[in-house]
Design a protein that fits this description.
Blueprint (H helix, E strand, L loop, with lengths): L2 H9 L22 H9 L2 E4 L9 H6 L1 E5 L5 E8 L2 E9 L4 E5 L5 H8 L11 H10 L3 E8 L3 H6 L2 H10 L1 H24 L4 E5 L1 H7 L5 H18 L3 E6 L7 H5 L5 E4 L10 H8 L4 E5 L2 H5 L4 H15 L4 E4 L8 H19 L1
Parallel strand pairs: 1-6, 6-7, 7-8, 8-9, 9-10, 10-11
Antiparallel strand pairs: 2-3, 3-4, 4-5
Helix pairs in contact: 2-15, 7-8, 8-10, 14-15
């Protein structure tokens, strides 16, 4: 099998010629380096090709937004001018990192003002995905990242205000997600019609980590399944990204009808017991990951990593599993070489 065939087979719950060994992108490895090319040639890589043009608030608000940056470039202030008043956000940059230090929505009234802005979609642009798909062909599985509906409140409210809105105004929170889902649905359908055939949905962890089990049937089930159904209607692979403690959410997430899910972190960084996860999922969703990029792949010697991987393969079996990391995008040379060693482990497991 080619890597693309192998990964699609596993994502659909099938048994490929061997378990895919699937780094998420290249981490800190230059793709055109010798090591980068070797990863593509020997592993079964996920590579993201982004689609442009989508925003939850749309072109109308963008046309009425003003931005000002301090002369030293460290602080950017953005003003969103809505019919109900101006919303302000601030983003700070340091020599090490950058972060939003003030979010545009602070109250339920701010959310109402944002949702009420007339929506006009941007023109979508899927060239990034198609360029990536053409570059790697069958040597990797190209996918396009897309948010889920809950990403809208999660990105315009601080983490604290995000949780408070759910506690204090759940109906407004759900309405915001409903509007976001409608806008996402049109974008996803346009992507499918343009030939995008694999997606990675992000955002579920905002609910599972911050809001808890009772929010899943109200914020993920009604809206994420809408995206999934559109993607499947066009024959696309649907991959789902969800960090954090996962075991008590597995059944509900599999109910979204996703094909595969990452990263399902093992203890001590997560709570995923692989054999138990396979039992709960019952072949409905392919597991991707279960090895930590930083704590295992990038720190431990090859022999120890291979022993851990061999144990993971025994637990997961030959179907519905891709051996991967935490999809952090931060791994280095040691992890890259350990990924290459894992291919030999997977080949030995398949040959038994």
């Amino acid at each position: 099998m080619t890597s693309r065939e192998r990964m699609r087979c596993a994502a659909k719950g099938g048994r490929p010629d061997r378990v895919p060994v699937s780094p998420w992108g290249f981490g800190h490895i230059p793709p055109e380096s010798d090591l980068g090319r070797e990863l593509v040639a020997k592993c079964d890589m996920w590579v993201e090709g982004w689609g442009g043009g989508f925003s939850f608030s749309g072109a109308k608000l963008a046309s009425e937004t003003t931005t000002e940056t301090t002369p030293d470039g460290t602080l950017t202030t953005t003003l969103y001018h809505t019919p109900a008043g101006t919303l302000r956000s601030r983003h700070k940059r340091t020599a090490v990192t950058s972060a939003t230090i003030e979010f545009p929505c602070k109250t339920a009234r701010d959310v109402e003002a944002l949702v009420a802005v007339p929506y006009a979609p941007h023109a979508p642009d899927f060239r990034g995905f198609h360029d990536t798909r053409a570059k790697y062909g069958d040597a990797a599985l190209a996918c396009m990242g897309v948010c889920d509906a809950v990403c809208w409140p999660a990105t315009v409210l601080s983490p604290e205000d995000f949780c408070l809105l759910w506690a204090d105004a759940p109906d407004l929170f759900i309405e915001m997600c409903r509007v976001a889902s409608q806008r996402l649905g049109a974008y996803v359908e346009a992507a499918c019609k343009a030939g995008v055939d694999a997606f990675r949905i992000i955002g579920g962890e905002y609910v599972t980590v911050q809001l808890g089990p009772k929010a899943v049937p109200k914020l993920l089930a009604p809206f994420d399944t809408r995206q999934v159904d559109i993607m499947h209607r066009y024959g696309a692979i649907v991959h789902y990204h969800n960090h954090g403690p996962i075991m008590r959410f597995l059944d509900a997430l599999a109910g979204l009808r996703i094909d595969s899910m990452d990263p399902l972190e093992a203890p001590p960084c997560g709570d995923c017991a692989l054999a138990e996860a396979k039992r709960v999922l019952r072949g409905r969703t392919c597991i991707v990951g279960n090895l930590d990029d930083m704590e295992v792949l990038d720190r431990l010697p090859e022999r120890e990593v291979c022993d851990i991987a061999a144990a993971r393969l025994e637990e997961a079996g030959p179907d519905g599993f891709m051996l991967g990391g935490t999809s952090s995008g931060t791994y280095g040379e040691r992890a890259a070489r350990n990924f290459l060693a894992l291919v030999r482990v997977a080949e030995a497991f398949a040959a038994r």
